Amino acid sequence: MHTVVVGTSGTTAEDVIAVARGNARIELSGDALSALAAARAIVDALAAKPEPVYGVSTGFGALATRHIGHDLRTQLQRNIVRSHAAGMGPRVEREVVRALMFLRLKTVASGHTGVRPEVAQTMADVLNAGITPVVHEYGSLGCSGDLAPLSHCALTLMGEGDAEGPDGTLRPAGELLAAYGIKPVELHEKEGLALLNGTDGMLGMLIMALDDLRRLYTSADITAALTLEGLLGTDTVLAPELHAIRPHPGQAASAANMRAVLKGSELTGHYQEEEAPRVQDAYSVRCAPQVAGAGRDTIAHAALVAERELAAAIDNPVVLPGGTSHGEGSEGGRVESNGNFHGAPVAYVLDFLAIAAADLGSIAERRTDRLLDKNRSHGLPPFLADDAGVDSGLMIAQYTQAALVSEMKRLAVPASADSIPSSAMQEDHVSMGWSAARKLRTAVDNLARIIAVELYAATRAIGLRRGLTPAPASRAAIAALRAAGVDGPGPDRFLAPDLAAAEAFVRDGRLIEAVQPVTGPLA
Fold it and tell me: Which residues are annotated as modified residue 2,3-didehydroalanine (Ser) in the UniProt record (predicted)?
């Protein structure tokens, strides 16, 4: 099994995917354990002083004015976890919980939080055991971190609340820890706060969305090329010199993908051979690289933000080496309050991606509708039906696609533009980054379905262009789709299973895998 080593130098998006989706094992490096011990020594020194230090010997948020004595500090840390574990609604997906737990461990291991090495090791042990805390949909405002989601994870470390075992069974967390020989932690000064105060949930969802969207954007280039073939369109608009004079890298990549798929096609270039010759194809076909390319560039920007956030150590207060600045200090280090937990950088790109995904879904649906309309499909039967009138063909498949696009547009409304003050106006501006991440996950799911419907329609259209041979890559895609159980042209049948199979084919990356042996690697 793949192992991810967590050290002080940050982690990669590939590590997050490996842990969240691939159940990779986690090990703490020697430098991480040393950094944890050094930071803890600073916190212990501050805890021994009579002066109040936020997060160490005070209450939290608007209650930070109260100094907490030594006899109540364990209770203080336990209470912040219990009280902040206030999520409601449906359970969040297992991969999301694993991602946010792993990312919190990454920050803890940086040595900037003051958490003891044994607490970090327990976090790794819980992940390695396949124990997944119950985290709920609602509870994070994306500021002061993803507080409620992370609190539910910290509750499991304490042996409280409910969690899911590796077999999918829901059990009391204490029972699961005992079954795997994991001792519940008793939190010391600052540790409860340190486990809750990060952008880990929204960042984990951003990283997984980027992983999915890269695959979907390449798939959308392929389906756009298949639709161009089905409509007997022209591939001259994909010429590299046309895209070089508008030098957006994503646009050039999408055009190159489409060119590679269409190479050797007998279906392209017939747009001027009809009764009423076309001068050019419709926007949804001709501008496919421009729209998909803009989304690709958006993905590149979002990936840069994710990379920076992965390099961050987010907590409040944070443990820093060196002498006293404005924070509370001890020999060898200090504790500083800060606002790095604010989720704005991540929230903005989550919303930006939802906008780009909605537009890609929108243009794919317009291409599908063009394939089904006999007045615009250049010789194809109405709705690609076998016997139009007796058969309805793909009429309602497009309805489903249109409904998905409509929802995508609603999901594109930015969450990060909203803010509701909390904590008695101490936390008076929040990012709503968790909400942005949750709606992006829904948008990504919908985008896979929209692309699947276009794939289904385009491959049927190509199958109806008898006497003309599609490109070798197109033939490979069609053969793989048929092998996956998705039938070609013919009389009406129960469509939902075909559409579900096409969705899985796109979502799993099998469309890309089918064409790349012909085209070579696609961007």
Answer: 144
Sign of CA dihedral 353, 147, 125, 31: positive
Contacts of 316 by beta carbon, 8 Å cutoff, 6+ apart: 55, 144, 193, 197, 337, 338, 339, 340, 341
Q: Structural domain tally of the chain?
A: 2
State how far the Cα of 437 lies from the Cα of 442, in Å rounded to an integer. Answer: 9
pLDDT band at 208 (very low <50, low <70, confident <90, very high): very high
Residue 63 lies in a domain: yes
For residue 350, is it within any domain?
Answer: yes
Dmax (CA) of the chain:
91
Tell me what pLDDT residue 328 has: 61
The two tokens of residue 64 are 């930070």
Treating both helix axes as pointing N-terminal to C-terminal, what angle do 395-411 and 495-507 enclose, rounded to 10 degrees? 50
Q: What CATH number did the domain enclosing 187 receive? A: 1.10.275.10
Q: Which two tokens stand for residue 22?
A: 């691939």
DSSP states along 23-68: --EEEE-HHHHHHHHHHHHHHHHHHTSSS--TTTSB--GGGTTSB-
| pLDDT score, position 331 | 59
Out of 198, 227, 244, a domain closes at 198
Q: Do residue 184 and residue 236 come from a single domain?
A: no
Same domain, yes or no: 88 and 173: yes
Q: Would residue 99 count as lying in a domain?
A: yes
Are the CB atoms for 315 and 198 separated by under 8 Å?
A: yes
Same domain? 142 vs 270: no
**pLDDT value at residue 500:** 98
Residue 414 within any structural domain of the chain: yes
Q: Is-catalytic flag, 283?
A: no
286 is in which domain, residue-wise? Answer: 213-306+340-420+428-519
The label of the residue with tokens 């957006």 reads 248
Query: Which of the residues 54, 217, 271, 348 is marked catalytic?
Result: 54
> CA–CA separation, 200 vs 100, rounded Å?
5
Whether 231 has a pLDDT exceeding 80, the answer reads: yes
